[in-house]
Amino acid sequence: MKLPRFAILTGAVAVLLTSFALPAYAGAKQGVNPFAYRLLESQNHERVRVGAPPLEWSAKLAADAQLWADHLAQRGTLEHASYEARHKAGENLWMGSAGYYSAEDMIGGFIDERRNFVPGKFPDVSRTGRWQDVAHYTQLIWKDTREVGCAVARGRVNDFLVCRYFPVGNWIGQPIG
Predict the structure, then answer these.
(1) What is residue 91's three-state secondary structure?
(2) Out of 42-46, 75-79, 173-177, least confident range
(3) 20 to 30 A from 33, CA-CA: which of 53, 55, 63, 121?
């Protein structure tokens, strides 16, 4: 029996079953994609826990994320889009065995980096001394970030999650929180 696996890619500073863009977030109201809502709520739960304002769902960021998620699923590898290609948005990536992980598990991969996080100014915010070990988490809780849009695409073996954040976080010399 093959065990499921997942990976997270840390990039530069600075649903299910088939690929499709997640619709605009409108709270727990009519017409909201339940998977998109769960992705957003998982992130907002952590943001509220640390005193950051909740994120709003962005249909534009989600559509951009979908294009990149589709690209990653086709290639079967994780790699960040260029800063320009993502229209200067922040980006968190996650990959795991297809069909195995929930929205909460996917976002939980970013939140799990909290164990290495120490408050301070970016990039000096990691117990390990490597900002890359907490960069997904710091982007997720970055107080100046106001919008998020995420998308998932299924590859041959793995699901690929792309979350885009605006304004981008992880600015060198800026405090987290």
Answers:
(1) strand
(2) 173-177
(3) 53
